[in-house]
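A quick aside before the break. I want you to see a complete sequence-to-structure record at least once, exactly as it would be stored in a machine-readable document. Don't worry about memorizing anything.
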Amino acid sequence: MKHPLNTTPLAWAILLSIGLPAAALADEAAAPATDLDRIVVSETRPAGYAPPPSSTSTGLTLSLRQTPQSVSVLTREQLDDFGLDDLNDALESTTGIGVERVETSRTYYTARGFDITNFQFDGIGVPLPYGIQNGDIDTTAFERIEVLRGANGLMSGTGNPSATINFVRKRPGDDLAGSVMATFGSWDRKRIEADVSSPLGSGDVRARAVAAYDDSDSYLDRYALEKSVAYGVVEADLGERTLLTVGVSHQDNNADSPLWGALPLYYTDGTPTDYDRSTSTASDWSYWDTRETRAFAELAHDFDNGWTLEGTLTHQDKREDAEIFYVYGTPDRATGLGLFSYPSSYDNNVRFLYGDVRASGMFAIGGRRHELVFGASSADGNVRELSGYGTDIGTPLPPLEQFDGGYPKPSFDAFSDGSDFDFRRETLYATARWNLADAFKLITGANHARVRMDGSGYGTPKATETSRTTPFVGAVWDFAQSYSLYASHGGIFAQQTELDANGAPLDPIEGTNTEAGIKGEWFGGRLNASASAFRVEQDHLALYAGFDPETGRSIYEGQDARSSGFELDVAGQLGSIWSLAAGWTRLDIEDGDGNASRTYVPRSMLRASAVAQVAAVPGLRVGGSLRWQDGIHREAFLADGAATTIRQDSYAIVGLMAGYRASNGWETTLNLDNVTDEKYLPSLYWEQGYYAAPRNVSLTVGYRF
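That is the input. The structure line, written in tokens, reads:
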């Protein structure tokens, strides 16, 4: 059922209401405007874990307290303290985020019970043709990672009502500064990274270069990952009010013997398997390499009247080359037999060109000053995939306890399949922040998006065209010096290409997020906390409903789901000693009939990280982290039709760290993860899975100048 706020007339009324009529512009000069507490962003890096202002939610740069949605920020300091060098490790430390590690080279993310498909770079929404991240994303090029929970149709255009992940890139500073770090860890890990920022010439031009190389074996049999990262950015002052920024990033991932699929989790009698943590289904010849390049240009101009015009253009090129080995079947408990081979080759190329133009500033109505941002964005791209297969699919395999990866490499020339489709998204958006009283702000906005896809993917047509207008409304009341109450409602949608029993595409996914809560801010914004209650609705999500042998296609039906719960989140600096980031999430998820749904998503999660400065030893800091979740499960069916349940009990993962920063610029950090050596399955997103890493250690030594 559609929410009343999802009607197009009301959404367009919101768009019209936040326009700047001529009368308002005329009123601006005469009005004795009041202060709107506008955030002015400087280049000064916030100390410790203090969250800086964010524009991820509305396009307006607001403090977390003034943002009427739940936001968590992973600062550079937190990423460095706990050695969070890749996105999976970083998000596992974030309130309410589930990291579904289904394979070594592919990952799903969830929040509030639903998949995360919304990503931004510096606040600009990135198209994602599939809801899965292929390959590793290194964090070295980012100053921070912002996570907005709930629907974000206002700035993302399309996606799920789950969360938005915004990667904020590092930028040049005004002075010469830099660092060189080397890390050594378990499984022969070796990593080196460098980061240098410097003014060029008179200082009107500034540049920053970041590079990293990481090479490691694994606790998994035969698996190894080598990756390299390079990022460069240049800023140039084209005048006192005009700034040009250009940059490019590139990352290579070379994975040897990666998992494609994972371990079977139950035997033919329905009892659970229990392999060694090192067990892998990968062959000794398999590999999965990814190459991703992003180039961007930004031009921003500040006008004399306080308005700013910004334009961004980004080109993304991602390539994948893989020869991978999948194992399917259900093993017999007594013999371990019953598994079969499914090798494949895979080539993929995803290209996107996307741009955004927006204007932002203040205007006066009724004697008060208000804020407005409006803009347009466009994304145009294509996806080309080719999978090759041999004649040996279905070859019986030995028990996994005896499998050493020694399987003959096929030629992959028996037959092929793939995808070839184009994608285009166009959006118009606007947001106004109304200063109705010194202590009360109302935010209204809407996004109108049109999405078109043409082509096919693995035999399924992808010719669709969908357009929707999604509204947003939020309010913040500062009822005390350090406290605010807030509430918001937002919508989002996503096109679908899955077909129903009649061969027609399913209706678009439609999602909404409604939440309310209280936020606190202390020590000049260096410590923030929030408590919120939320309700998320997602309708028409494609659910597999069978196979049509006449057409050779899978059949899907739309499924509705609801999640509701509450979150607690705190982050920042507590005095001069403590840096902390912690969050608790509790939720329930039901389908349209009121039954428990998505049982692979934990209903309760705790994420906590804290570091303390040791006063007795200047430069010494010690800390720890905790990741806890309750039990999860999923239903499966045996060959005879009988049901079985796959379970992962609740678990807690403890990490410890200690670091020392000398006054001459040298520093060292020691991290110990999974201190108790817990054995657990990190995901039941699929009926296959693999075990997470056992106890491991890393030591980083570096120099900052």
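Two observations worth writing down. Confidence is low (pLDDT under 50) at residues 1-46. The first helix runs from residue 8 to 17. We'll return to this after the break.
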